[in-house]
Structure formats: C-alpha cells, structure tokens
Amino acid sequence: MPEPSVTLTGATAPVVGYDVSLVRGDFPILERRIGERALVYLDSANTSQKPRAVVEAVSRHYLEHNANVARAMHTLGGEATEAFEGARAKVARFIGADGSREVVFTKNASEALNLAAHTLGSRIGPGDEIVVSVLEHHSNLVPWQLLAERTGAVLRWFDITADGRLDLERAAAEGLINERTKIVSVAWVSNVLGTVNPVREIAALAHRAGAHVVVDGSQGVPQLPTDVAALGADLMAFTGHKMLGPTGVGVLWGRYDLLETLPPFLGGGEMIEVVRMTGSTFAKPPARFEAGTPPIAQAVGLGAAIDYLERIGMENVAAHEQRVTAYALERLQSVQGVTILGPTEAVDRGGAISFTLTTADGTEVHPHDVMQLLDSRGIAVRGGHHCARPLHERLGLTASSRASAYLYTTEAEFDALADGLDYVRNFFGGSR
After folding, report:
1. Taking the model in full, what pTM does it have?
2. Averaged over 86-107, what is the pLDDT?
3. For FRET with 411, which of 92, 95, 118, 144 sits at 20 to 30 Å CA-CA?
4. Per-residue confidence band for 225, with pLDDT thresholds at 50, 70 and 90
5. Is there a catalytic annotation at residue 215?
6. Alpha-helical runs (H) found in 7-152
7. Catalytic pick from 39, 55, 387, 397?
8. What structural domains and CATH numbers belong to the chain?
9. Residue 70 pLDDT
10. CA dihedral 277, 281, 283, 286 (to 10 degrees)
C-alpha cells in the first residue's frame, strides 16, 4: 500500500493527501527534547498528543464563550450550548450514529462502561450470564464483575489462541453464548495485543441469543473508520483523549430505542423532567444520562479533534497506522531478546505492540527498567500490565512493555526504539 500524503499546514488547510512530516508540524509537543535527545513519543494507546487546533479550540472557548449550557439564557450561555451540542453532532456523524440523540457525553470511557453496566443491570438476575473476554481492559471487566456480584449473574469469558486472537472455536464448542447470555461486552481493539476483534461476528451470535452487545471502542474509534450500525453494537464506549481530544470527556453511544428504555445512572440537574418532593420524572436520552454540569470545554475540544481527523480522513489515518505498525513489527522482531505478544503481522491489528525483552542468558528485563532506560534516551513507552492484568496472567507474565503508534508516528521513531532496546539489553548484559 503506498504511503498516503497529506498537505496540512494549519487548522483549516484542505487535505490533498498524507505527509506525516506535515501532520507532525501540527503537534508542537513533538518538537520537545528530553535532555539532549528529541522526543520519541510511542505511548499513544495510553493518551494521544493534541494538535494545535484542539488546544486553541479549548482555549478560545474559555476565553470567549465560557458559560454553563442548557440553563443560561444569555448570549454566552447560548454560544456555549451551541458549541456543546455542535460537538455532540460531530461525534454522531463521526461514528455513523442515527443523530445526536444517541450520543451521551461522559467523563471517560470507564464512566461510559459503568453507565452501560448499571443501566443494563436493571435487566439482569440470578443465573443470567455476562460474557466478556480475557483480553479486556479493566474498565470493561470490573463493572461487569460488580454487576455479577450485585445480581447473582455468572461472568464468563472468551479465551485467546496462541497468536492472541479470540478463540471463537472453543467458545462455540463450550456454548459460551447461549440462551442464558444477557450481555456480551468486548473490546473492538485490544490495548495490549493490538488484536482487532471480530465484533460484527460476535454481535450476530449474541443477538441470535437475545443478548445485548456492548463494545469498548477506546482503541478502535481513534484508529479505524467507524460505523456503529455496521459494527453490530447496541452500546459503544470510547474516550476523547486517545483520539487527539482533551482528557475529561468520553462517549457512550447507544441505539436510541434501547437508551430510552434504560433507567438513569446518576441523579441531579438537567437529567430530570419534573422534580417534586414525592418523586421525579426523567428527561429523554441523552440528557437522562448527563446529570450536572457536563464536560463543556472538553466536548468542544473533542469536536475540534473530530474536525481534524475528518480533514485528514480516517481511511488515511488507518492506512498510515497499518503501514507504520507493519514496519514496527518487522523491525522489533529483528532485535535480539524481543518477543512480541499477540499477532506479529499487521493484519486485523491495531497500533499497540506489547513485548518482553530478555538478556543473552534468558533473564527478562523488567518492563519498568525498559521504560526508564528508554526514557533516558527520549523514548516514551509504557511498562506494566496496561490495565489488563488477567490477560498478562493468561500469558504467564506479570507485565510487559508497550509501544504504540498513531497518525503522527514515523518509521524512524521505531528505528530509535529498536536501537534503544539494543542499548537496554546490553546495559543488562545482553552481549557476549
């Protein structure tokens, strides 16, 4: 696949292709130096960097339009409400929703998944089954564990194959999804293994069993063109800070016919219809699920991030990320002592690459040591269990190192990582 090229020199420049060097020019932080070395940022699965256009949109909102939404009738209140609801409309368009009424703003994907678990939990009872997978982020595991504990439901999960993909054959043989299944909740893309899961196939199985399907789109929506209807989800959560937006804003998308049957998650202002001392009635979605003052400036920033991504084109983003990930997988496999977790080819695979590093005598270098020594060379990666401890236990590990790419990542940065890993290995006795 040829490298797409983008001519993008500012917030409103028209897109005619994809040139990663021009894209990088929109991210001032990438010009930073760590000590005497240029920053090599390979931690985008943790949080993405923000283009100047997003930072300026948030700043401009606070400096020129700051007010509360929905309740302030003055000029600033009207401007803030228009910007906030405009961001909701952008999110709806970006993911192929059936209008803004299907988009609920939360503070992050974790809150969105908890909202899903609490509201769908009203339909769960003893003996019902909830299905997740062993590769889930804690945010798509713990809420379902808590729901099972509250209701007496049974939590079951997909295992993985040797190459880090969901074991659908074993699941079918064991009847994992069956007439007792009420909820199936899986990640679209693994934040550890990079695996792109067959959500549409799983959703079809779940719907035939009468179950609702929840998707953790935190790693998928930033990387891939998204059409929630084609994906087959009933509810999907994702977060702004992994897709060039600010921290503090997430999204729960839901089919409106489902949302309007779900109870409130939190109580407070703006989620109500009428409040009396004897009881309250509640607003229609999405307001029903947005109690109190929402993340206004953060939503405006997310809207600006979507504008930026749409100008580039998500097909270009996905193509660039696939190209860089393919290069990274090949380059890292050439480094002595590196073992990649999950798929080793860029097929149905996202940009997160987790790995272990061993010295010449087979001793594993702790991921925290890998992270610190790489940081001394200006290279930012993550070390730990990446909020996926059960997956690491399944792999027989306590932790791993993870490098992750995004639309501004270059092949040269993975060359720097490979050289850095050679340095780390030799520091701990890698050569003989």
Report:
1. 0.94
2. 98
3. 95
4. very high
5. no
6. 20-24, 52-60, 75-95, 109-120, 142-151
7. 387
8. 55-310 (3.40.640.10), 313-427 (3.90.1150.10)
9. 84
10. 100
